[in-house]
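Hi support team,

I submitted a single chain yesterday and got back a structure, but I'm not sure I'm reading the token output correctly. Could someone confirm the output below corresponds to the sequence I sent? I've pasted both exactly as they appear in my results page.

Thanks,
R.
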Amino acid sequence: MENCSFDTLQNQHSLIKSPILEATDNLEKSDWLKQARPNQKIPDGDWRIWLILAGRGFGKTRTGAETIRHWALSHQARRIALIGDTQEDVRDIMIEGESGLLAIHSPDERPHYEPSKRRLTWKNGTIATAYSAENYEQLRGPQFDHAWIDEFAKFREIEKVWQQIHFALRLGAHPRMIITTTPRPLPLLQQLVGQAGHEIVLTRGTTFENQANLSSIFINTMQKSFSGTRLGAQELLGEIIDVHEGALWIPALLDQYRAFEIPELKRIVIGIDPAVTHHSESDETGIIVVGLSVNNHAYVLEDLSGRYPAVTWGKIVCEAYHRWRADRVVAEVNKGGDLVETLLRSIDPTISYQGVHASRGKYTRAEPISAFYEQGKVHHTRQGLKLLEDQMCKFLPGMSTSPDRVDALVWALTALLLEKESFRSYGTWRL
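Hi R., thanks for writing in. Yes, this is the structure output for that exact sequence:
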């Protein structure tokens, strides 16, 4: 036998690699590891759950798909669960999307996809199966060693999905899952964040980290429309906003931008949400005075709302119109039709009046107005607005009570901040 040095034998052995070592080498040389940001790379350590809370456009889908690709091709995973909100979401985003599993694999390593079976099969035998949160019962029976859950915070049955995936993730020596989601203030999500540590790795990220790969128009629009808002903090910065879910206003926000002086105002509007009856259980008539400054910030000046007979609230509105030197009275006409204008003009024919017709729900109409508050463009004065502010902070979708003060506020601010062209006309406009 020909003599060989130890170094020669070692070099010859290095040329004969196992499939696992060869796959690992290929993954290490992949473009993804070169272009991925540090918080998109699989964390080191003996963790069980990798939770990514990030804004829209961060690259969550790409990160989830690349993590699954790594686990599959490196032989770490043999049975994988892919879970999205709906079956269409799993198919259109996680599997077939621009950053989905099929797109990120090179042609020679791409798994075989069987849509009818909701299944991806890699050449090494690893299988990934698609499930929806809507049909969480399908997770009963199957078992997995790895999982990817996308947009976890969207799930309507989030607790039940969470229970089922824990029962099913029982194969292998070290089952793992990656969760990619834009956050919402959900108890389960907050619980996971609070448990972050050895077993749960938490990664946070923002939309703007990935702006090199996003449309500049999109970035500019998001910054202009949502900078400084709670919605922007959640959807763009990936923050969990710990407030009552669905609330449009919180006391701290109103206090933050409260005005201690009233600047020069170029326009003043009085918003009315009229009650159609007058007795002890009638709705209040909302009457709110709002002004617009020369720098286009709105100032809530006075709340004159109350439970009045029609003639009484009509006189209150006309008195405030002249006292504040207002430009216009804006009133909802869904209930009273032309009666509101008739009443006001019978008291003072010189009143400048605008009828508005509500074609959408109160909460929907209030949402864009709340964004102006979050941007610091609406300011409350110090006196006499407590009842209005209490109603604002308790205003939630699906409420059975009518928020009359809030509705009058929304009409007035809409006229000043959103409907400037319609404001100049004398006809009825819709919102």
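A quick pointer for reading it: Residues 1-25, 421-431 have pLDDT under 50 and may be disordered. Let us know if anything else looks off.

Best,
Support desk
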